[in-house]
Automatic annotation (TrEMBL), chains A, B:
It comes from the Bacteria. The keyword Transcription applies. CDD domains: HTH_LacI (cd01392), PBP1_CatR-like (cd06296). Keywords: DNA-binding, Transcription, Transcription regulation. InterPro entries: HTH_LacI, LacI/GalR-like_sensor, Lambda_DNA-bd_dom_sf, Peripla_BP_I. Residues 9-63 form the HTH lacI-type domain. SMART domains: HTH_LACI (SM00354). It comes from Dictyobacter formicarum. This is LacI family transcriptional regulator. The lineage of its organism: Bacteria, Bacillati, Chloroflexota, Ktedonobacteria, Ktedonobacterales. The keyword Transcription regulation applies.
Length: 345, 345
């Protein structure tokens, strides 16, 4: 949190008046738990008198707040959700807030039901993972003055919606460039849901890498999946049934890649000798499957942490440095890709 | 929920008076979301007049409730916690309650801090996973009349503490019997934390199986671990350094077993040809590692569901059929164990 000079000198004044240290004043301002109740009350009063607490933050400190931050995510069935939740929890644990977690079970209907539920149960703010992206969808939150941050949105987000994502285009490009650098020319991709920008961007990065390398884009090599292992399994089978199958597969995510592994194994094919496979995410799964999965790491925990820190700023009525934050992806080389034999080129 | 005949006939009477169906009355009684607000109010009033809502449930329906059920678990770092949370969420999603999740990060201190936090922030009830088990530890919850159910407790639970677990002793026995049935005579176990009854019980089951088979218990074959992959890795190395290493390892849990796999692989040993490995839990990890892990399934999602259903009864002021529920474990045979060659016996 950046503090102006004048804010800092006011905090020093408050600290002196309250007979506490400046860090203690800061802790009260940021709702940290380790402050004695009487001290907190005294400092809050001084903060308010000096105009350092305004708007929503004022309400919050006046104990009209619920003390609850909500997180809505697709479900307890993916390491992706779990890793983001981990980051969110790490930040919430340092505050006096509690984290309420709800699952949409991948259903737009349940997501909308949650939106109407949230109007009745007070919430200080919300983290929405893979939420439906049309701006009007968030109207219930706007109406009730509930600040929120979206992680990996679906659809189109307006420019005013705070959001956190990863450099998916770059990640898709890096994955494909890596396979090309190993000599692969027939590179297939199995996508995530086509409604999700994070998935669209990865495929766009894939196309860009092929084009830059002067390789033709084969439409049969772009297979629609949905991030599930099942879709990885089915689409790999479809790819293997082509007259000229690919020599490398870029899976939409690590969990989908486990389905790719199963399909290849079921046909008696070896990874990476018969097929190179690269994933996306770098969830723990990637480093426990055999062979260990080469993948594009997106920093899911960090995304959860950054989104939550942004949300705490909003709850405090503080401005955000940026409405859209993209964290960088990078290649993690393990054992599932290898150079293409000259004979197969 | 069991209903006496008289309760059912009262509900029929209320349904008639309110001009709604009996299932609607039941939905109001059990806080299901799909009831129109005016209908809910009318039915609640009638339920109260007829004495069908009492005590805590009465308070709850009078909207003095927070609408929050808390879950405290060790951390977002294990599939074990995740699977239980999944079951809890499935039940909560069918109610108008929200689920607040906090992590102890495996720290007794953070657990105690949560206990003091909960006194300030109202909670309708709590699910405590692997909570510290001394009865006095739960005093803050008792004092504030917050009902709770413990899943897989640590320490000694009093007989009055509602809890859910699995048949850990039977599971440990089944795992060991299976290895013995494959001809293994030198069977080692890597334990979980020794403070946890679930872990102690598995080791007791291991001992029992060896004794029943007339095999000697070798103290060097009982290695202290803590459920982490690291402890699986370290203890496997210790076992392999013995003058006479085991031919089979019973890992404390599936995630620990991934560390056993890594240690064996680092020494160039093949699973199951050179060493049979069996796990415990049957989390998704078990069926994605190679070779797929033979394990003892404990129904973690079901445990979460059962604990939450018990908690909802308590919140409603209804008696429990049983204070302690143990769900059954069973053997899931996959590819990580094989009969011992005659030469090695």
């Amino acid at each position: 949190m950046k503090q102006s000079l004048s804010k800092r000198s006011t905090m020093a004044e408050i600290a002196a008046k309250a007979g506490v240290s400046i860090p203690t004043v800061s802790r009260v301002l940021h709702h940290r738990p380790d402050v004695a109740p009487e001290t907190r009350k005294r400092v809050e009063q001084l903060l308010e008198e000096h105009g350092l607490i305004q708007g929503r933050a004022k309400k919050l400190l006046r104990k009209e707040h619920s003390g609850i931050v909500d997180m809505l995510f697709p479900g307890f069935d993916s390491m992706y959700s779990f890793e983001i939740a981990r980051g969110v929890e790490e930040v919430i644990a340092r505050t006096d807030l509690r984290l309420a977690i709800s699952s949409t079970h991948h259903s737009t209907e349940l997501e909308q039901r949650w939106m109407s539920k949230i109007q009745k149960s007070p919430s200080d703010g919300a983290i929405l993972v893979l939420a439906h992206g049309e701006p009007r969808h968030f109207d219930p939150l706007h109406r009730h003055n509930i600040p929120f941050v979206v992680v990996d949105h679906g659809g189109e987000l307006g420019p005013d919606t705070p959001s956190v994502g990863a450099t998916n285009w770059l990640g898709g490009r890096t994955a494909t460039e890596y396979l090309i650098s190993l000599g692969h020319r027939r590179v297939a991709v199995i996508t995530g849901p086509t409604t999700l920008p994070c998935s669209q961007d990865r495929v766009a990065g894939y196309r860009s890498a092929l084009e830059t390398a002067g390789l033709q884009i084969n439409p049969a090599f772009i297979c629609l999946g949905d991030f599930s292992p099942d879709s990885g399994y089915e689409q790999t089978n479809a790819l293997l049934d082509l007259p000229e199958p690919p020599t490398a597969i870029f899976a939409g995510c690590d969990e989908q890649a486990t389905g790719v592994y199963s399909a290849l194994r079921a046909r008696g094919l070896n990874i990476p000798d018969d097929m190179s496979v690269i994933g996306f995410d770098d969830v723990p799964t990637a480093s426990i499957i055999t062979p260990n999965l080469t993948t594009i790491r997106q920093p899911l925990r960090e995304m959860g942490r950054v989104a939550t820190t942004m949300l705490l700023h909003l709850i405090n009525g503080e401005p955000l440095d940026s409405m859209r934050v993209e964290l960088t992806t990078h290649l993690v080389v393990r054992d599932s890709c290898r150079p293409l034999d000259d004979a197969k080129r």
